Each structure stands twice: as structure tokens, then as C-alpha cells.
Model the fold of this input.
Amino acid sequence: MQVRDYCVRPAGPDDLDGARAVMLDTVYRDFGTGYVPRWHGDIIDPATAYLAPDRHTLLVAVDADGEIVGTGALDSRGPLHPPNPRHVAARYPSGTTAQLRRVYVRPEHRRRGLARRLVAELLAFAAADGGYRAVYLHTDPTVEGAEGFWRSIGTVVHDERDDPGRGQGIVHFDVPLDALLPAVVPSRSPHSTGR
Done:
């Protein structure tokens, strides 16, 4: 099965339960943290986090059976200090930073180009907005395949594994807006459908 067998589209209200299930399964299974309110509030209330604000979006990847098997989100909140390093927070201020979040694909649907397609669509959304000057994300390098995937798209700006005391062990990335060109640039706002 290739990426063409999937539909990647903006989430609507009817997609939120399926998207939430993908996200929660990922934080329990892949991260091993389970739900942590201070980190995962957007998972519980994705409508407020991603559907309501005009400059935010939540995408879903839907398989041929209509099941949501992947997610990708973007918001205008830069990383906060703490817990992130001060210089990372200063480099990526809220408002002009598009932060990629919740790019998750169920294990049985991985290695088919879905995550790359989700990211391409998120970058197209950020470029169409016109107000974003940087794209940021962080990843947990203990999650299988995550660090390699993000290194293939972006540039490491800070690796907490090199810090004294090792911080959170997170790797922080800068992603060029044009990293995955040619991206599918929507002819209208992704929020004009599915709401």
C-alpha cells in the first residue's frame, strides 16, 4: 500500500475522536509516558488547540476503510522555557513560529510516506499563512525512526543529549518552509472544508 491509498485532509469535528485515539495510543505505546496533562492538553481538546484558531491546523490521514491512521498538527506557539533550553525558546518566538506537533502514524501504516506527506501539507499550510518566519519541532530520539525521519527534513538546532544532566533528552529541529517542495499548496484555506 502506497501513500496514494490514503487521504490526507484537514480534520473536522467528526474526526476528533479518531485523531485523539491515534495521539493517545502514540504517547502510551511509543513514548511510554501516557497522558501527561501539562504536555498533552491539546490531545484531549484538539478542537480548541487546532480547529478554532485560524493559524492552526490538524490534519488526519485516512485509510481506504475510512479509519484515521495518522495525524499532524501545526500551531503558532513557540517552545517555552522552561522546559526547553532558553536559546531555543528565544530563537522560535510565538506568533512567527509554526510549531509542528503530533505527527503520528499508527505502526502498521508506517514506512509508506504518510508522515512525509503530512509534513508537506503542514509546511504548505504554514507557507500559505504568510506570517510564519520559522518552523520548529522537537522529537524524542528514543522513539524508533523519529530522529532519522526529522534529520531527513530539518536541521538539528539543539540536542539535549549533549547537555550536562541531559535535560529532557529531546532533539530540537529547524525545518525550512520549503523543505518538501513541491508540496501540495492548497488553493484555499484548509479550514474552509470539514468544519
